[in-house]
């Protein structure tokens, strides 16, 4: 991509330009915001560094690219962490500046910034980029600061301190010193006082005098003045005011006659400086391609829609899909619009909106139509509609048509409050894959971290890593860990459940390596925690492997973890209840057998969470059906040999055993946030027929036990798949149940 680099003069904004070039991008322009008054060195701003702005003007000549500058007219008016367009705010000056750069150099598609740890700055740059249709590049984001500082020095960044404002840094001693000279001292201050060695806490600011990108000249500071802003005895504050400097030409000056360097900009202006004036009244923001989402209510009602909803009052799931195949011969866009509109109406009926949604599962019939699905999706779920953060999302191709459904199937997890905490990083970085659009990396709600499906994407390039399914799996786990660490937890200690989607394109012979690699990776991570004494509260997660037709970007693996992010230091561990206190009663003649315990995996956080994966294999189906008098045994090798009576028997067993697990761990059906029932297309039953069967079984169960409430919508969500199971090598369950319950 062709990039305009936001430069303050500091080391970070210069080094991120070098990273852009490393990852194949091209710096074609610079953009800088400076004080309205030339005599002012520093503004009271959390957004911009301006100390040394008198020297930044020379960057155009040093690099041989045009520099666009604007005097900051606004001030801090929008004080929230996230940013909305606010007239008079200093962020609008950045918008005007970058809009003008884009107007003069239309080939620009990305903006680089040196953000390392400041969400405040990153979110504002991302907001401006979103409004202008540009991509934010932040390759320093979340990088270890000690490592980063060393890398800057090793790679030729020559920068001096121009502001100091922390304990241990004395303006008289440390201003004007190179970071290479100060590095060891900065690490000492980190050990003593916990400072940020890259100055991310405002401890110091720098000015770059030379770097490998300065092909034409380096800057020599001839004279400066130390200005003391605070003489505090513990942490004095001082800045360096440059009085005189000159450029020292480099012998290996690069010719500017390369036709690939003009980017539509006159060669005579390649090292020019352009001051951007004007205000936002003349600015037109980028418009997203319009998709008509207006649907008459009668259009929605005209379709036969399958709706399900769990009964939990404060956090529940709603799913919706089209069931009338004869009316779903249109395109994906129409089907998805109908489904999303119906969910929107359901939310309104309960007094909620999209801002209450924590997570969205988007299932589509053909991954080749992913772009169309996304285009429709972003017209319903927008950042403007989600004031507290956009929901996390996973997108999977499922055999919907084979199950008698439409081309789109959506499931949403809804909360009745606004306590969710969303991590939404739109910038491309080295940290984790970006989410450019209205879907976030993760959503934390009441100690449960719902993570977006993670592909094996290399974060800085956003390309699938090479090496096949195991390499993609490892990268996906690393991406998941990077996201988890932002919430002070880890996938190796805090994971409750891993759902691993496996593409049908993975050869059968390689599926075993996926599970082995995952086990090895997590065990190695756990051993590291054990070495440093962090094994208290480690959960034993459960695993579900799902075989699907395709994944986004033709990925072979997608990992979707759910984590327990404890708010306090209490131990989270498996809890063994006193079974004498509460016992499940017999239903449909089922009595506890030892082999029942081999049917399921569970992860319990005492008094808080109950997660269960129940797998009914061919072998278990034989046992279940053979216990029923007058029901023929199942052919253990053929799911197609199951009669409806046998499937109904299996459905009853599933409900019986799930109920037993809930009761034994002091949970109820009212605690269920979601209940997914995965069924393979090889079962040769439509979703509608199977749904009716489970509805009737739940009605029978309710009449027998009074432990589940029956209403208009079923509490379960039927998901058609190619296969599912507790192992990557045996994704051939007849029915797989995924139950997640949480105490209020």
UniProtKB/TrEMBL annotation:
- Stated EC number for the protein is 6.3.1.14
GO annotation terms (biological process): protein histidyl modification to diphthamide
Give all residue intervals belonging to the Diphthamide synthase domain. 1-217
Query: What does the UniProt keyword field contain?
Result: Ligase
Which is an annotated GO molecular function term of this record? diphthine-ammonia ligase activity
The protein's matches in InterPro entries, at most eight in alphabetical order, are given as: Diphthami_syn_dom, DPH6/MJ0570, Rossmann-like_a/b/a_fold, RutC-like_sf, YjgF/YER057c/UK114
What's its catalytic activity?
diphthine-[translation elongation factor 2] + NH4(+) + ATP = diphthamide-[translation elongation factor 2] + AMP + diphosphate + H(+)
NCBIfam families from the UniProt entry: MJ0570_dom
What PANTHER family does the record point to?
DIPHTHINE--AMMONIA LIGASE (PTHR12196:SF2), DOMAIN OF UNKNOWN FUNCTION 71 DUF71 -CONTAINING PROTEIN (PTHR12196)
Give the protein's recorded name.
Diphthine--ammonia ligase
What organism is recorded for this protein? Davidia involucrata
